[in-house]
Amino acid sequence: MQNEMSRRRLLGLGVGLGAAASLTLAGCGGGSATKSTATGNGGKDYTGPKVDLKLWNGFTGGDGDIFKKLVEQFNSEHQNVAVGVTTYKWDDYYSKLPGAVSSGNGPDIAVMHMDQLATFAARGVITELDDVAKTLELTESDFAPTVWQGGLYNNKRYGIPLDMHPLGFYYNKAVMQKAGLDPAKPPTTKDEYTAALTELKKSGVQGFWVSPFQFTGGMTFYSVLNQWGGSLFDAEVAKATFNSDPAVEACTWLVDMIKQGFSPANVGQDADYLAFKSGKNAFNWNGIWQINDLKKSPQVQWGVAPLPQIGGKPAAWANSHNFTIVKQRSADNNKISAAKVFINWLSQHSLDWAKGGQVPARKAVREGADFAALTEVNALAPELEYAAFPPAVPGLGEVMITFYNSFNEAALNKKSPKQALDDGVAKANKQLEDNRKKYGS
Amino acid sequence: MADVIEVGAARGDAPPPVGGKERRGASASRRGRATTPYLFLAPYLVLFLLFGLAPILFGVWISLHQWDLQLPNRPLVGLGNYHDLFSSDSAIYGDWWSSVRATAIFTVFSVPLLVVVPLGLALLLNRSFPGRTFFRAAFFAPYVLGVAVIGLLWRFLLDANLGLVNRLLGMVGLPSDTPWVTDVPWAWVSLVGVTVWWTCGFNAVIYLAGLQDIPAELYEAARVDGAGGWDRFRHVTLPGLRPVLLFVLTTTILASANVFGQSFLITQGAPGEQTRTVVWRIVDEGLRYYDAGRAAAMSVVFALMLAVVSIVNFRLFRYRED
After folding, report:
1. Longest CA–CA separation in chain B, Å
2. Which of A129, A186, A296, B282 is the most buried (most CB within 10 A)?
């Protein structure tokens, strides 16, 4: 009996060991990635034998269905290419991918956030795509400059931008109306914002719940920090600068929302958004991806607008999905050229992707009449002029966690904004130094 | 397992059969049998070497390098990764020790409860009363659920502003704004409480099995000698449960020290990183930041810490047996 029980517990431990084992075994295969540049004609067409392509993405929301439909359409139009889609949660996705790739079980095409490209390029997981960009006749002027440059690492292109997804300002029309505010005129400036919150407070509503977590408080802080004229890092991303005066002011403004009673303290993960949907607050700064989710809740009367300008200039957190081609242990040139055809095709169909609730990366598509018809997504398109994308340097993920954690400590009133950010910067600088040693930039 | 050993031992002690010829034959066949135990052990040995010992040794090897799955060069850094964990000017020092502290807090508060509460539960469930089977199942039920299920469930129940727990507390006139998942010490209360609720049924089942192994005659004899309820518990139940207690204590300490899912899902490390545990840190370093060398060094140090705790634990129980 006892032994059986202990074996069960051991089995539990064994899972961990097994994971470690597969990790280490996977490690044996590293470093053997073959170079595979300039294959095919850059994605114009593919005439070779039939190939199966594996594609991985992290589109777990409503966007996933739209993506799958696009892939089905591609498959039916291309007899000799069959794309199969696998979807993971983004969190798991980035930790699964390296192991899968080095053990030879990785995908052929991987969708990736812009700020991850440099990390994966530096680590040799993905391959160069300059020829695809050339065939697609993509140039910097087609994109927001940061997005275009974010796909570069050591002057080579690794990602073809598919879309951009900024933070937007969601407002609950019913709650605004109840407080005597005009739901057709969401606040756009700091004064209007404060005035609206004051009115809401009078009607017994804490209008703007400040979440201490990355989703959504951390991204809100990221946005206002940029609005105040601050930045997270210096231009070379050698030093963290998110304890500068503008950053501290921006952080203080957010923490004061709680102190002034416009937000409750100790907002839990997702609580801000759930409260928004159930009419317990009025304003939520949240990702463009929530548009599709809100459309599923017809009882919520909501609108979405560019973020109010709280600081000295407009700014909004944003990121971008990119297509990448994964390096294989044994390169199959047919697969690579077919993958390029797929990327080319989907990039041209990015208007359909916009229906998934993302702004297409291509300017031409954005400026077309069809895109204007997508009211809500289109409402956030102006933000792209001033969107603040995370910098693309290898190994930044860990440093961003440090940034979001320092905001967490300030928002939960564990430290003063200044103290929290000073501590965060001290740690971030050490992490940046470690990264420089590791990636040798 | 124990049965097998007993049978083997009994056969070894058996008087030799009479008759020289037969004896020779028997001893020859016994010599032949000498390999039998090893053959029986072989499958497990292979699995253990392949999935137990080899990864452990490989892990130690990794911990001596700056090891990234993809980067082509994996420079040998000797004890550098270990040095980082113990030198206060490295980037990881603060994080590492804060997660050791978090794990220690959780273990110190959860283990006593997970040892005592299930024992009480088992004593109650061991009596005969109508509906006993139902209650046995009811207390075990949460253990069947995965950590993702209970984590998500409790995160929303315990939410400071929207959760049911605070609302109920408010209805009976208690403070209704306790930050159960975003501030300490409440976050620890939540994590320990949820874990006890979730896993106490498992330990209770083990106790229950142990209780049923204690011969009823011992209780009868104690009763005849005039022992009260408490005396019977102290002098019959507890000694009878000693091996079970040692097992429960050891596995509970190890399980609590390996806490990951609860804080990952319920508190998400908040506030700051105060509830971020060691295993979570190791997963992050190894799989999220791809620093397998550092993660391996952490695993080795953590395993040594747990080994020390387990040895102390076994020693304490052995002394009591003497």
Report:
1. 89
2. A129
Peptide bond into A264 cis (omega under 30): no
Query: ipTM score here?
Result: 0.82
Going along chain B from its start, the domains and CATH numbers come out as 2-82 (no CATH), 83-321 (1.10.3720.10)
SS3 B127: coil
pLDDT bracket for residue A8 (50, 70, 90)? very low
How far apart CA B143 and CA A129 sit, in angstroms, is 50
Verify whether the Cβ–Cβ distance B182 to A266 is below 8 Å.
yes
A391 burial (CB, 10 Å; 0-12 / 13-18 / 19+) is buried
CA nearest B159 in A: which residue? A268
Residue A432's nearest CA partner among A393, A392, A388, A390 is A393
Element (H, E) at A163: strand A163-172
How far is the CA of A34 from the CAs of A17, A124, A329, B155, B208, in angstroms?
30, 10, 6, 46, 59
**Domains delineated in chain A:** 39-162+320-388 (3.40.190.10), 166-318+395-439 (3.40.190.10)
Residue with tokens 């944003």: A318
Interior angle at CA A320, CA A319 and CA A323, nearest 5: 150
DSSP character for B17?
Answer: P
A264:B68 CB<8 A? no
Residue the block writes with tokens 């700020």? A115
The tokens for B100 are 């050791």
Which among B181, B209, B247 has the least Cβ separation from residue A268? B181
Neighbours of A312 (CB within 10 A): 11
Q: Please, which residues have CB within 8 angstroms of residue A425's CB and are 6 or more apart in sequence?
A: A240, A241, A242, A243, A406
Asked if A142 and A149 touch (Cβ cutoff 8 Å), the reply is no
- Which residue, among A393, A324, A24, A120, has the nearest Cα to B74 in the 3D structure? A24
Judged by CB atoms closer than 8 Å, whether chains meet at B247 and A2 is answered as yes
Separation between Cα atoms, residue A359 and residue A378, nearest integer Å? 7
Please state, in angstroms and rounded to a whole number, the distance separating the CA atoms of residues A294 and A164.
19
Looking at every residue in chain A, the average pLDDT score rounds to 87
Distance between alpha carbon B190 and the CA centroid of its chain, in Å? 19
**Which string of DSSP letters, residue by residue, matches B131-196?**
THHHHHHHHHHHHHS-HHHHHHHHHHHT-TTT-HHHHHHHHTTS-S---TTTSTTHHHHHHHHHHH
Burial B264-279 (b: 16+ CB within 10 A, else e): bbbbbbbbbbbbbbbb
Interchain proximity B251–A6, CB inside 8 Å: yes
Contacts of B2 in chain A (CB under 8 A): 3
Check CB contact of A141 with chain B, cutoff 8 Å.
no
Which of A2, A102, A398 lies closest to B69 in CB terms? A102
Distance of CA B229 to the CA centre of its chain: 31
Stretch 357-396 of chain A: residues touching chain B, C-beta under 8 Å: 395
Strand segments, DSSP code E, in A13-50 are none
| Nearest residue to A63 via CA among A78, A85, A95, A84 | A85
Quick one: which H or E segment has residue A160? strand A160-161
Which of A264-268, A385-389, B45-49 has the lowest average pLDDT? Answer: A385-389
Nearest-neighbour CA in chain B from A35: distance (Å): 13
CB-based contacts of A247, cutoff 8 Å, min separation 6: A225, A228, A230, A241, A421
